[in-house]
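Let us practice reading a record.
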Amino acid sequence: MASLCARATFSMPGKGITMHIARIARRRRLRLIVTACAAAIAAVLIPASQIASANVIRPAAAAVPRPTIVLEHGAWADSGSWDAVVRNLQRDRYTVYAPPNPLQGITYDSAYLKDFLQSITGPIVLVGHSYGGAVITNAATGDKQVKALVYIDAFAPAKGQSIAQLLAAYPGSCAAPANLNFVPFPGAPKGVADAYIKQSAFPSCMANGLPVSEARVLAATQRPLASIALGQKSGVPAWKTIPSWSVVGTADHAIPPALQLAMDQRAHARITTVHAPHLSMISDPGIVTRVILEAVRATS
């Protein structure tokens, strides 16, 4: 067909009637050939266009943003208690914050943390240690950015419960009045003081299993908890609507492990136990990091 199409374009006209008739015949034949050529070309082009459209590259689905991880420390500690965990998470290229906990009571501390969370854009995994667990339980309520709660040797109170009430229900905590020093501070409400763990009691109470030299440093650098925090009642718990994980140190002397398990089971937390003291994020940062990342993966 291609050679026929090519020859048709070079036909030469003759002379006379015979040539005229021949010319008309050739024109008709040429029209037929052109029509056939057009049909042949169309038959080739149409499938090619269909193939081209089938190979159009479509944009990939938008990637889910990585969550920011916020670590809330507990009483008689500071943000430095998270140092090893922060290093682990930053090694995996997560954005991490360990803001200071004012330790002025559940009401104030939860409002403080709630405001801090609102400064973050995107999903959040919120982690609390010890008293910090009670703080995250209240601060995250109603916050749609918080995708997971992680409790590390922590309180996870229900609505209306106080820390003093929980400890009374499960005796055995070393954080008893006999092991506390109460120090007045300016502007304190009547009957409120800063509570410190006595340095003589701190190593066996908070840091059993850690090197003695390290425990002594932690005792000397502890931050006090306002005594009002022990009796304040918790509000609507965030674990009612936000999935939770927990690490329970079975050698914890500050919060009885039985109390931790009871609270975590009520919150339907995914529980990991480890033979560790109250400061498991210092003694076993790898396990604590692993559980935090489990929460990240499950909610991303």
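A brief commentary: The beta strands are 68-72, 96-97, 124-129, 146-152, 180-183, 194-197, 225-226, 244-249, 270-274.
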